[in-house]
């Protein structure tokens, strides 16, 4: 029962997809595309002065879970193309919790392993008590997050796989 449990403090999900790292990276590195694959995030906008992902870049994610809706400012703290992007929710007076999210891509031949992790870095007990009751879907997020990765895989596999053009040579 939700009353005796608490919000998951960490999690790890992974899928291996039939798409090259480059195609998957184009989906996950553009955080404004999160609404295409996330079960919860339905809109992402860059904050003023930011137009692309880089360490220190901030964006606002608007989320929905059941009847609950909220938004959070997030800050990218790791960006290593085409391997890793990581961001954290920025704590505020009204939302004092913070969670680090990380997506890592690992090439496996012609496929890509997508690994998503999250770690709650701060969560006051009172907020955990409230969120457990208001949003019990956050008690165990493994299935929903795995489904998110499967949606990333579908999008990446459907996108044209760009390859680096070969330099042209001319002989006379």
UniProtKB/TrEMBL annotation:
InterPro entries: Polyketide_cyclase/dehydratase, START-like_dom_sf. Transmembrane segments: none annotated. It comes from the Bacteria. It holds the Pfam family Polyketide_cyc2. SUPFAM superfamilies: Bet v1-like (SSF55961). This is Polyketide cyclase. It comes from Acrocarpospora corrugata.
């Amino acid at each position: 029962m939700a009353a005796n449990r608490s919000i998951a403090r960490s999690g790890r999900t992974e899928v291996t997809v039939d798409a090259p790292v480059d195609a998957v990276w184009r989906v996950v590195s553009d955080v404004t595309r999160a609404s295409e694959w996330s079960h919860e995030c339905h809109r992402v906008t860059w904050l003023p002065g930011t137009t692309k992902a880089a360490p220190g870049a901030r964006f606002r994610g608007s989320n929905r879970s059941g009847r609950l809706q909220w938004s959070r400012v997030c800050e990218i703290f790791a960006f290593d193309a085409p391997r890793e992007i990581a961001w954290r929710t920025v704590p505020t007076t009204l939302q004092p919790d913070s969670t680090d999210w990380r997506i890592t891509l690992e090439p496996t031949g012609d496929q890509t392993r997508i690994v998503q992790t999250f770690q709650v870095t701060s969560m006051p007990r009172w907020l955990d008590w409230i969120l457990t009751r208001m949003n019990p879907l956050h008690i165990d997020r493994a299935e929903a997050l795995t489904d998110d990765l499967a949606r990333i895989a579908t999008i990446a596999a459907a996108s044209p796989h760009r390859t680096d053009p070969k330099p042209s040579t001319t002989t006379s």
